[in-house]
Structures are given as structure tokens and as C-alpha cells.
Write a structure and sequence with these properties.
This protein has 2 domains: 140 residues, no CATH class; 244 residues, Cytochrome p450. It is built from 19 helices and 12 strands. The protein has a 5-stranded mixed β-sheet, with helices on both faces. A 3-stranded antiparallel β-sheet has the order 4-12-9.
Length: 440
């Protein structure tokens, strides 16, 4: 089925099927509300309708939000031929491409996943941390001292450089200069562009036409890099992800490689940058917690730094939920749901549940010092066989940036706590997480 057909071919729900209760607003109104105001609207619907409730949103029309870990475990442990994450992510198709591991299901997904996983194993991960810390230290040295500034754009710059060097493996300055502005624009696409993909005819007009031109320009540079990499003599000695993908399966087409690279770029760039921006925003407002994290950075206490990153991801999940589209009828959370329904395990609701995380509004890294949390109670990287392939790199990057920043400066907030807004598919600080940094 073509990607655009997935958006517009929504099956009707039989009249005798009973969906969970939920808001009665029409899908045309619920869709923008759900995607733009999830951080405040979904908790409100949760309070009103309970731990299982329905939503009516494009592209699939009928969705069920899940807030209890036992129900979410049913989804993550369910058969791959029933719970289709690829179809649940189909709205991302026009940018990530048909070969993206995020958009594939069943056997095709397993094959692609195995290839991409090969790039995230072994000694390379430790080397990646050193590269990230060096890049972060170079950029922190250029930050304004003693003056308010928004840290989120700086986190985006660091994360972009990590992606270009570690994932793409680009070292040629001319090609880096080509890619940087294109990628910066690409990751800032707004929800309006995603909405437009539901209706392919819009691609001829306004922002959707401009987006397609941006995508074409970005693809041209990426394909040029892939072609150049295929010709290098030292491919086996390179540690970047693109080179490892070529070594793992040289028969892959340029289109497949392009889709893997763009997926890692979009899934790993804005998400990590936003997590770090929120982390600095929240630590700056909690001096006692900040002092503990600074001591961990000075001592290179990886255990406490990892716990800090996990707590930042719990408190501010930048992706509020994951999605699985039912390819077959299934019983979920006590309801017999037909094929075509999308189930949404809610990261936001689970991470803020007082029964799971007492005083959920507090920032307490100690929550994660005593082993891994129970299944389906902390899942910013998704769950089951669809867990994010770049999770290990994201954790290495976040810890390295925390260390680089907090070893060099004391941070304090600039202004009131910030609201969240939706950009791309992530939840980001409304004013960019403004703070002040001073030398320690």
C-alpha cells in the first residue's frame, strides 16, 4: 500500500463495535488539538474518561489512548503481524521514505532493523562519547557569559554536528556547509506540513511545495555523500554509521541508505536536543539537584549521569506517545478492537502517574539508581521489538553534553518556567529554555 493511501483509506468501524469513551469533538477539530496540545489536553481527557479512552484523529480516524502499564505491555508483547508500528508512523513517510525502519512492519522491519543495529554495537559507542564531549566543549566555549540566552538552539547545533559526523560520517567541510542549513530547516518543519501530507494534492501549493524543494535539495547532498562513500578505499576502518551500513549490507540501494540516514537524523536530532534543553531548564531551577549533577560530571559518575538523563526523559517526554495500528482485530485493555484502530501507549501519562512515580513533578535522578524500572513504566524509546535503534547513542550523547556543560559553568534560569509547544513531532520549550551561564 502506498504511503499516501495509508493516510486516506480509513476503514469504517462496524456499528456493533464498542470503543472506549472519549471526547465527541469531530476528527477535524480533534486532530490539531491532539497533535498541538497533547501536553495539557491528553491529561485532561485522562482525568475525565479514565485510563483507556478513544480519540478521533487523522490519518486513521479511530484511536485508543492507553495509560496503564499492564495494558501497554499487552501492546508491546503483542504479535508483530497484528500491532503495526510502521503503519502507526505512516504520517512520517513523505520525509523518512518507504525504506525507513520506522515505517516497516513484520519481516521487512526485522531485516532493516538487523542491518541498522550493526552500526550501534561494540567499541564504537565509547568512541562516540568522546567525540560528542569534544564537540560540546568547543561550542560551550562560545556561549554568551553572564547574559540570558536560549539554550535549545545551541543543543540543536551540537546534536546536528553529532549526527553529521557520527551518523553521516561527513568530514569534508564543503559538504558540511551544504548540509547544515538544509538540515536545520528540515528539522524545524511544523505540524502544518504533517497535516498537509494527508492530502497529496496540497503538495503543489505554498508551504508544502517549499518543503518538497527543501527535501529535494537535502536528498541531493545525501545521495552525493553516499556515492562518494561507496568509492573510498578505507571503508572498513571507518566508524560512522553510514560506513557500517555499507559494510553490513553493500547490496543496499542508495534509496535504502538515504531512508536509514534521514530516519536516524530526524529521530535522533531534535529529540535529543529537546531532552537536553528541558534538562538544563529544569536543573537551573533546582540548585540542590544541579549541585549533585555537577559533582557527578566532575567525577564522571556515569551511573548518576545516566539516572539524570532518564529522569529528564521521564519528566519531559519529548515524544508524548507511541502508536501501533491494528492490522488484525485484537483485544486490548478489555476491549475487542477491530483492524484499523490505532492504539496509543501514552508515555506522558505513564511517566506522570503518581502511583508509579511519587511526586511526579519533582526532578529526582535517584529514582533510576536502583536498577531498571518495571516494563512499560519508562519508555521514551518505545518498547518491544520496536525500541529505538539509536537509544544507546542518545544516552551517550546526552551524558557527554551534560558533562561538557556542567564541568565548565554554573547555570541559573532567565525568567519564569517555560510552557511547552509542539515543533516537528516533539515537545520543546516555548521560549527555547532561556538561562544564564557563568564560569565555575
Amino acid at each position: 500500500m502506498a504511503l499516501t493511501e495509508r493516510f486516506i483509506n480509513t476503514p469504517d468501524i462496524p456499528a456493533d463495535v464498542s470503543l472506549p469513551p472519549g471526547p465527541r469533538l469531530p476528527a477535524a477539530l480533534q486532530t490539531p488539538l491532539f497533535f498541538l496540545g497533547r501536553t495539557w489536553l491528553v491529561p485532561r481527557w485522562h482525568r475525565r474518561y479514565g485510563d483507556v479512552f478513544s480519540v478521533h484523529v487523522a490519518p486513521d480516524g479511530h484511536g485508543v489512548v492507553l495509560a496503564k502499564p499492564e495494558h501497554i505491555r499487552e501492546v508491546f508483547a503483542g504479535p508483530a503481524d497484528t500491532f503495526h508500528a510502521g503503519e502507526g508512523n505512516a504520517i512520517l513517510g513523505p520525509v523518512m521514505g518507504e525504506h525507513s525502519v520506522l515505517l516497516l512492519d513484520e519481516q521487512a522491519h526485522l531485516v532493516a532493523r538487523k542491518r541498522v543495529m550493526a552500526a550501534f554495537r561494540g567499541e564504537a559507542m565509547r568512541g562516540y562519547g568522546e567525540i560528542v564531549e569534544r564537540l560540546a566543549a568547543e561550542r560551550v566555549a562560545r556561549w554568551p557569559v553572564g547574559e540570558p540566552f536560549a539554550v535549545h538552539p545551541h543543543m540543536n547545533d551540537i546534536s546536528l554536528e553529532v549526527i553529521l559526523r557520527i551518523v553521516f560520517g561527513v568530514t569534508d567541510e564543503a559538504r558540511l556547509d551544504q548540509l547544515r542549513p538544509l538540515v536545520r530547516r528540515l528539522v524545524r518543519i511544523g505540524p502544518l506540513i504533517f497535516m498537509g501530507w494527508l492530502y497529496p494534492a496540497l503538495s503543489r501549493f505554498g508551504p508544502w511545495r517549499r518543503f518538497q524543494k527543501l527535501m529535494d535539495a537535502t536528498d541531493a547532498v545525501i545521495y552525493a555523500e553516499i556515492a562518494a562513500r561507496r568509492r573510498v578505499a578505507d571503508l572498513a576502518g571507518r566508524t560512522d554509521v553510514l560506513s557500517k551500513l555499507l559494510l553490513a549490507a553493500p547490496e543496499q540501494t542508495d534509496a535504502e541508505l538515504r531512508d536509514h540516514l534521514v530516519t536516524l537524523l530526524l529521530a535522533g536530532h531534535e529529540t535529543t536536543a529537546s531532552t537536553l534543553a528541558w534538562a538544563f531548564h529544569d536543573l537551573a531551577r533546582r540548585p540542590q539537584v544541579l549541585a549533585k549533577v555537577q559533582r557527578a560530571a566532575d567525577a564522571r559518575d556515569e551511573r548518576y549521569l545516566e539516572a539524570t538523563v532518564k529522569e529528564a526523559m521521564r519528566l519531559r517526554p519529548v515524544i508524548p506517545e507511541v502508536a501501533r495500528r491494528l492490522a488484525k482485530p485484537a483485544r486490548v485493555a478489555g476491549y475487542d478492537l477491530p483492524a484499523g484502530v490505532v492504539v496509543f501507549p501514552s508515555i506522558l501519562l505513564v511517566h506522570h502517574a503518581p502511583a508509579i512515580y511519587p511526586s511526579p513533578g519533582d526532578f529526582r535522578p535517584e529514582r533510576f539508581l536502583d536498577g531498571s524500572p518495571p516494563p512499560a513504566t519508562w519508555f521514551p524509546f518505545g518498547g518491544g521489538i520496536r525500541r529505538c535503534l539509536g537509544a544507546s547513542l542518545a544516552m551517550v550523547e546526552a551524558q557527554a553534553v551534560l558533562t561538557a556543560v556542567l564541568q565548565r559553568g554554573d547555570i541559573t534560569p532567565a525568567g519564569r518556567p517555560e510552557w511547552s509547544k509542539t515543533r516537528n513531532i516533539t515537545t520543546v520549550p516555548g521560549r527555547g529554555a532561556r538561562l544564564v551561564i557563568r564560569p565555575r
